[in-house]
Here is the input.
Amino acid sequence: MRGVDAAMMAHPFDGEACTMPALATRHLHITFNGKASHAAVAPWEGASALSAVIQTFQSVDAMRLHVRDGARIHGIITNGGQAVNIIPEKTECQFLVRGKTSKYTHEIGDRVLRCAEAAALATGTKMSHQVVGGYKNMINNRAMALHYASLSESLGVRTPEATPDTPTGSTDMGDVSHAMPAIHPIFQVARRGEGSCHEDAFVKHTDSEYGYAAMIRVAKALAMTAYDLLADPALMKAAKNEFAQRVEN
Here is the structure.
């Protein structure tokens, strides 16, 4: 990204941290095509695409034991058939695979696809898939993050680095962090355990006086971090040197 030296954003949460161990993702859309037949009159003439998608989920669930700590696999069936009295000829499902590195996430995604291929073979159906997106893991620039943390503390809130076992999601900021020095702090708008992001209970916390005060504080800390990056060549150099030594995987 020409002309851009660094990037920052923040996300509301039920905790406070100057770094975010966001996971890489791979988003898979899988389709099974079978053969329709009357489910009562001649089910033996059909090839059930529904059986294929169910078998895929069963195989993926069996696979979970063998993935590394921190990896996540979650999926939904978006099309389970067309009529209850017809052997389903087409089904569709989606999986979102997450891992601590982009490389490992792709490995898990390939294993999910092999589960689907095996299900198709077992049920006499055909499988096709699309990779519909995915994010890279977040590379937190500690030079920037620790500077942000010191400014946050000057505004009255301690913002430590996230621990390795911090529950986390994924973000397109991960892709940005592979292109330039970047940070993605999280800030507290709800007490621990009272509501996490993407939950209905979290809405009331974001739309509260406490939530708005936290947002304004974080905006100030980010703005001051940006100012210091522009005004202090040593800070910018430290951030860029750290970025140059990053390990991508």
Q: What stands out?
A: The helical segments are 49-63, 102-123, 142-154, 173-177, 200-206, 209-231, 233-244. The first helix runs from residue 49 to 63.
